[in-house]
Write a structure and sequence with these properties.
130 residues; alpha/beta; 4-stranded mixed beta sheet
């Protein structure tokens, strides 16, 4: 088994795709003609966005993500230049949650919030273990 998709339910899929392209440089892969589902090019695991009303159609209770009620998970994007990525994300409208900082294990890590309140970690690759 492998992780194939991470789907974030958002009020406006097109706006989310545009934000993730501008803030993180993730190329838009596609958006359905109905505008209710879209994906960005994100590597081995597909990062996708679906309109919130689709979550309710699955038959389970759904609580939308909002900036004032941060969820207990994060999207992690790996980059060689966390400082630049953090600056680009904030310039594109992300809220800075934590400035870039070097961690004891050798990674540089920063946190931002997207306009829908999803936490995005920006981190350097894990250093090679000796």
């Amino acid at each position: 088994m492998r992780l194939g998709y991470l789907i974030l339910y958002v009020p406006d899929v097109d706006a989310a795709l545009s934000f993730y392209s501008a803030a993180f440089g993730l190329e838009r892969k596609f958006l359905t003609p109905e505008g209710d589902y879209g994906e960005v090019v994100s590597g081995a695991c597909t990062l996708a966005f679906a309109r919130e009303d689709l979550a309710g159609s699955h038959g389970f209770v759904f609580t939308p993500q909002r900036p004032e009620h941060r969820g207990a998970f994060e999207v992690v994007l790996v980059t060689e230049d966390v400082d630049a990525a953090h600056g680009t994300a904030v310039a594109a409208g992300a809220a800075s949650l934590a400035e870039p900082a070097r961690k004891p294990w050798g990674q540089t890590v920063a946190y931002v919030s997207d306009p829908n309140g999803f936490t995005v970690e920006l981190c350097s690759p894990m250093p090679a273990q000796a």
